[in-house]
């Protein structure tokens, strides 16, 4: 194996990234070295690429290899590694827990107090090789194609957000037609939702939502969201809100359209402080709110892996583009074009 590799690196505190030659990572005793077979672009990667306000305040290490979603083959294991073996086909739980704080010690490692994120707080996987701690290595069924195994991390967000409580027979309203909202549509369908509504702004992605099982497509730019939902539910509102957008509008509509005693899953990240009608939207309605951060370790991973392994969930409509790693700039262009013309973009080193 060569001592050098190609990697997409954030080389400066400015817009963009570069494909450069860097050293192959040297693993620590608790790490494994992976030959990356597929790696996918996430909204977080776009923030870092565009070097927006969030990225400027969050990214501390420059230069740093980008990326956190991937699938690959283990080439080497550290001296303290006991469960992962050379040749294993893995993906990564990208939230790296400390396993020492109160959250980790009480079964809440996904919200570890000292959490580190692959490609955000340390070198990531937009490269030919990546080094990750054994604790976040997830063994894949070898029948799962790399482009699907690579996107299990965001799929896990959708599984956790959607199935934190059962959706069987329920009216589910999804805000946001990004990849995670599209995944959530498929998960809600597999979970037996009675009726699935999705609110989005991009015809290309709403068409994907239809393929993923949405019953009612609502274009937030042209349709009266409130009227459509209230007419469909005889004025009662929906049982479940999946907020994958985090915008002020989605929050306002979500708490207005959830029924009394309903559930609100909050996954979308707001760009700043938000306001909502707390009394009428939450207290007087008796609404249950779940804050969704990451995936449950490892309850969510078992669920999503079995959905893929046993072909209960077809995510192929969401994976719209496959490109070689060297064409990463085209991948980011696809992700940022308005109106949207892509779902998930997967890169192959």
The biggest sheet amounts to:
7 strands, mixed
**Which term fits the overall shape?**
globular
Going by CATH, the architecture of the largest domain would be Alpha-Beta Complex
The class by helix and strand makeup works out as: alpha/beta
Low-confidence stretches: none
CATH superfamily heading of the largest domain? Medium-chain alcohol dehydrogenases, catalytic domain
Average pLDDT number: 97
* Total of helices: 12
Relative helix content: 25-40%
Top CATH class of the largest domain: Alpha Beta
Q: Per CATH, what is the topology of the largest domain?
A: Quinone Oxidoreductase, Chain A, domain 1
Strand content: 25-35%
Number of strands: 18
Indicate the radius of gyration in whole angstroms. 20 Å
Structural write-up:
The protein has 349 residues and is of the alpha/beta class. The chain folds into 2 domains: 179 residues, Quinone Oxidoreductase, Chain A, domain 1, CATH 3.90.180; 131 residues, Rossmann fold (3-Layer(aba) Sandwich), CATH 3.40.50.720. 29% of the residues lie in helices and 27% in strands. Helix 9 links the parallel strand 14 and strand 15. The relative contact order is 0.15. The model has no long low-confidence stretch (mean pLDDT 97).
């Amino acid at each position: 194996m060569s001592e050098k590799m190609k990697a997409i690196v954030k080389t400066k505190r400015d817009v963009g990234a570069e494909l450069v030659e860097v050293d192959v990572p040297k693993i620590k005793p608790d790490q494994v070295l992976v030959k990356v077979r597929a790696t996918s672009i996430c909204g977080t990667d776009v923030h870092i690429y565009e070097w927006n306000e969030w990225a400027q305040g969050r990214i501390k290490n420059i230069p740093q290899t980008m990326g956190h979603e991937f699938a690959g083959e283990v080439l080497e294991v550290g001296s303290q590694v006991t469960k992962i073996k050379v040749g294993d086909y893995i993906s990564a739980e990208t939230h790296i827990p400390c396993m020492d704080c109160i959250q980790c010690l009480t079964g809440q490692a996904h919200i570890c107090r000292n959490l580190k994120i692959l490609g955000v707080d340390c070198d990531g996987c937009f490269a030919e090789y990546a080094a990750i701690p054994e604790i976040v290595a997830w063994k894949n069924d070898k029948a799962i194609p790399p482009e699907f195994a690579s996107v299990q991390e965001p799929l896990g967000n959708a599984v956790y957000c959607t199935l934190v409580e059962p959706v069987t027979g329920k009216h589910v309203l999804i805000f946001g037609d990004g990849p995670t909202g599209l995944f959530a549509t498929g998960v809600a369908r597999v979970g037996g939702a009675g009726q699935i509504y999705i609110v989005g702004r991009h015809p290309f992605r709403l068409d994907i939502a239809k393929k993923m099982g949405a019953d009612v497509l609502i274009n937030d730019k042209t349709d009266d969201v409130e009227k459509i939902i209230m007419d469909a539910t005889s004025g009662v509102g929906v049982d479940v809100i999946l907020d994958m957008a985090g915008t002020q509008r989605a929050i306002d509509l979500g708490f207005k359209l959830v029924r009394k005693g309903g559930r609100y899953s909050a996954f979308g990240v707001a760009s700043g402080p938000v306001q909502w009608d707390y009394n009428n939207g939450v207290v007087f309605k008796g609404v249950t709110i779940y804050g969704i951060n990451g995936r449950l370790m490892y309850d969510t991973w078992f669920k999503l892996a079995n959905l893929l392994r046993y072909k209960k969930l077809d995510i192929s409509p969401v994976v719209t583009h496959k490109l070689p790693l060297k064409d990463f700039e085209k991948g980011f262009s696809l992700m940022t074009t308005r109106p949207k013309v892509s779902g998930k973009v997967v890169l192959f080193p």
